[in-house]
Amino acid sequence: MNLEPGRCYVLLGENGAGKSTLLRVLAGLLLPTHGKVTVFGGATPREARARIGYMSHAPMLYDELTGEENLRYFAHLYEGRECLTPAEALRQVGLDPDLKRPFGQYSQGMRQRTSLARVLLPTPELLLLDEPFSNMDVESAQQMVALLAGFRAKNRTIVLTTHQRELAAPIADYVLTLKAGRVAEFAKGNPTQ
Predict the structure, then answer these.
(1) Average pLDDT over the chain, rounded to an integer
(2) Given 32, 36, 61, 117, which residue has the most CB atoms within 10 angstroms?
(3) Cβ–Cβ < 8 Å for 160, 168
(4) In a 3-state reduction of DSSP, which class is residue 100?
């Protein structure tokens, strides 16, 4: 299968179907057991890691730090690269960088948006998002969809997993259903954003 730039691909499937594993392979965190994966015209995911942003199901942020303190810590991983400032990344996802509340006291929607801000620091071209709508109320999920639509409009490619097809439908250019580690269905979506 080939993924086109500036499109949103939604991965569906039962637990254990291979959605998260596929994201980890695309991120270069796992090697494929069969076949070959290339990104950006021929590079392996490991060679192209600087151009890929991966948001796992777990937030991977520190509960005792504020959102900005968390992002400041992660920004040090990208020293020498042109990146967003922590405040810019937080603003891009609709959060106030001056919020002094620790991350552990954020609502689920705020936690997910802060996790997305962490991924956006190095301005990746390919966003890999594992369950970005999990445990979110409908309004927060709709805000996340609007954010993702904006990133897709900037020619970023998005691959996301979800169990909530209806939430991702407004931005889904393509919907892939996985079964037992294989693509069982590849259908064109009907994005409205």
Answers:
(1) 91
(2) 117
(3) yes
(4) coil
Q: Within a domain: residue 48?
A: yes
Instruction: Supply the range of the domain harboring residue 54.
Output: 8-188
Hunting for tokens 């637990």 — which residue is that?
A: 15
Token reading at 47: 């060679």
Q: What is the pLDDT of residues 78-136, one digit of tens each?
A: 888 889 999 999 999 989 999 999 999 999 889 999 999 999 999 999 999 999 988 78
Distance CA 170, CA 168 (A): 6
In a domain, 144, yes or no: yes
No. of H helices and E strands in the chain? 6, 6
What is the number of other CB atoms lying within 10 angstroms of the CB of residue 98? Answer: 10
Total structural domains in the chain? Answer: 1
pLDDT of residue 179: 92
Helical axes 108-120 vs 67-75, angle rounded to 10°: 20
Check whether 187 has a pLDDT greater than 90. Answer: no
- Residue pLDDT, tens place only, 30-77: 998 888 999 988 889 999 999 999 999 888 999 999 999 999 999 998
